[in-house]
Amino acid sequence: MKKVLVLGVGAQGSAAAKRLDLEPNVEEVICADYDMKAVENVVSSIKKGRGVQVDAHDKDSIVAAAQGVDLILNGLPLECTKNVLDAALEVKANYQDYASTINLYDVWRNSEEGKKDNDGLADNVTSEATKEWIDSLKAQYRIYGPKFKEIGKLAIVGTGSAPGLICCATRRAVRELDTCDTIYNIVWEGAIAKRFQPFWWSPITALTDMSEEALAFENGTFVNRPAFGVPEKRQYDYMDEEITFLEHSHDEPLHYGFNADTHFKGCKNAYFKYAGAGMDFAKPLYQAGLLSHEAENYKGNEIVPFDYVLTHIPPAPKYKEEIKEIIDEGLVKDSGCMVIEAYGKKDGADTLVETHVFAPGLVESFERAGITAEMYLTGQGGFFFSKMFVNDKFDQTGLISSDMLTEDQVDTYFDYAAELGITLETKIKENK
Which positions fall inside the Saccharopine dehydrogenase NADP binding domain (predicted)? Predict the structure, then answer.
């Protein structure tokens, strides 16, 4: 029987906690957050739950809550990641993170290995934020990985819907090729409320990603591409309109680039393309300079445009009554897509493997679980990794990202997903 600490019971963490509560191999789900209202809201709805207040900016607070747990599930902002990783090592627990942190670059740059680093992965990168991101992933793989291996535990990062579920779906698509040249991860957030609700997940995370240059893996190296740039149109057969997808700063090309030879059959190019109400809202803000993190003077007052804009954006709905109210008001659209396009060779021919992820929309997610489609896909997407932990489906130790599962583990992941209405459809086409 396993004990799991869920750190951060917002949109994703609360969904995972509720699912873990139903697992026969789980003895206790410890729900932890600084916001005790959020904690009590989750604990009151499950049977095996226990609530505790944790200040994740204090490692010792995490350690105190994590005593005796088998798994720490981190659903907190990136700024807390180092504390949670260090706490997991101290209590000798497995670790799972929905995100892939960008706050470990100093750990890498101050390490002996980091000081000697000349692998050239960032040579063609222009953004300092992207260089920090690359160095943070190196710190996870090359510094924290050996530490978790030493205590015989596993840490997995990037385990939500994207990254996470989409990475496993990408592995499934690439399986159909003999060699892979190019991967596209294509996401459309098509749930639009009548009220002003541009984001269904953390606005600060969304706008932070949107305020940065995009990251791609191109011709075997990491590069920056213009934020909101390089438009490409797609209309799949279940979509009633053509959608323009834009560049977006996201984890997937980074992971695929690091693991191109070991897990993606020599992939040379990887891109993340994004569309939806959040992108439509953020693009003009970005163009007007209102997503800048640099302080400026306005009528004698110093303001940071990004911070000021953020104060005017509603948080993602996470309570059942909030979500019901939005649905009852009416939706403009309840749609979307998550698609993997993998281009390469199969039996000597140029081939496109097109894998579509199908999942409940907003209304169906609420009917099934009282949550939004974003909470459902990310929460359940993360839960499937947690379920694999509590059912002892991992034999690896160290630190891996969600695109590094074995083929059998990928199959187990999607067996679990199908039970909750998340399925794949793959089409193999000649690439003319």
Answer: 4-109
Helices (H), 251-398: 252-258, 260-263, 277-287, 305-310, 320-329, 362-369, 373-390
Nearest CA to 207 out of 294, 129, 133, 290 is that of 290
Q: CB count, 10 Å around CB of 410?
A: 19
Q: What's the pLDDT tens digit per position in 91-131?
A: 999 999 988 777 899 999 999 999 999 888 889 999 998 99
* CA 14/CA 41 separation, integer angstroms: 9
Three-state DSSP state, 143? helix
Arithmetic mean of pLDDT, 295-312: 95
| pLDDT, tens only, 252-282 | 999 999 999 999 999 999 999 999 999 999 9
Q: What angle do CA 20, 24, 27 make, to 5 degrees?
A: 70
* Residue 302 three-state SS: strand
